Amino acid sequence: MTKFVLPSPAISSVAVAGSPERFAVRRIFCVGRNYAAHIRELGNDERDPPFFFTKPADAVVDSGATIPYPPLTANLHHEIELVAAIGRPGFRIGREQALDHVWGYGVGIDLTRRDLQDEAKKMARPWDWSKAFDRSAPCGPLVPAAKSGHPQKGRIWLAVNGEVRQDADLAELIWPIADIVSICSEAMELEPGDLIFTGTPAGVGAVGPGDTMTGGVDGIGTIEVTIGQPK
């Protein structure tokens, strides 16, 4: 039995709908600019191919959590997303086989320190500090694909304090789930436990202490998190 000089970190995990079991999280990949309207609202070119950034596994937070307003930002944004959970390993997966590697789906929120991201873009620096911070990846319970199927259309939405801000359809994804899984696997060998946040529609905006975000994807589920006071 391996002995460690310090206690090993807790295993990050996501709830599974209707089950006491949880889905252990290995890595989190996020797709940038995968809805044309969101690309346009940020002033980017919607013809660009998909690109990825990452968050640490322990950035996941369950639905129902209160998340302290993070440090170093005055412009924290919400981004509602469909999340695909990988259940089978694969490298250079063909598009036709890609969905066979998806264990299930959930609803996630990619929290973004937008001011830090804008600064990083201007200086041609990495986005890590704007995306990969503590508790930046809330994720609702996962639904097995055997139950939900592989969604290709359906409403995706987010409201802040009851006011709808993001409202779109999964059919508007520029790169559908099978493409995203296949393209991601060209660069990284996907493994069980990987989560892929598949991109956000238009309507992103700021949230602050006391704001409650509620969102959902038809046929998959909902999520609700509240922003608390800074630590």
Automatic annotation (TrEMBL):
Q: What are the GO MF terms of this UniProt record?
A: acetylpyruvate hydrolase activity; metal ion binding
- What keywords tag this UniProt record? Hydrolase, Metal-binding
Q: Which InterPro entries match?
A: Fumarylacetoacetase-like_C (IPR011234), Fumarylacetoacetase_C_sf (IPR036663)
Q: Does the keyword Hydrolase apply?
A: yes
Give the Pfam families listed for this entry.
Answer: FAA_hydrolase (PF01557)
Q: Where are the transmembrane segments?
A: none
Establish whether keyword Hydrolase is in the entry: yes
Indicate the segments forming the Fumarylacetoacetase-like C-terminal domain, all copies: 28-227
Please, which domain of life does this record's source organism belong to?
Bacteria
**Which named protein is this?**
Fumarylacetoacetate hydrolase
Species source reads Mesorhizobium kowhaii
